[in-house]
Amino acid sequence: MVDHKDIETAQVKVIKTALRKGKKYDNIAKNYGGYLKKLRAEKEPNEYIKTLAVKMFPNEEAYTIRLENYRKRYLDNDLCASLVYALYYQIAKEENRERSDEEVERDGNLTVFGTP
After folding, report:
1. Which of 8, 30, 63, 90 has the highest CB neighbour count under 10 A?
2. The whole model's pTM is what?
3. Mean pLDDT confidence for 47-59
């Protein structure tokens, strides 16, 4: 399963690649620097990335659109931002999937409703 360290590593890779590319990519380096700073400041970074992933990619269409927009804007696929998106999308798919009865019972979600 993807965790916050995987996201952090991918973000650092994007920043380094963007900085090597020059001025045209300064903005993406700055943006990802902000994302990285926010992630590192979170008390519960794994919960943060799960929440963010679900917001970014509530469905496959949202993922496809975001990836297409990125590719149009940055024709240079060497930037690796698509890797970051892929990681967030993987988290979102896991969080958005329907849980089995066994998982619900195992996780204890029924006890909230007074069902043992």
Report:
1. 63
2. 0.77
3. 93
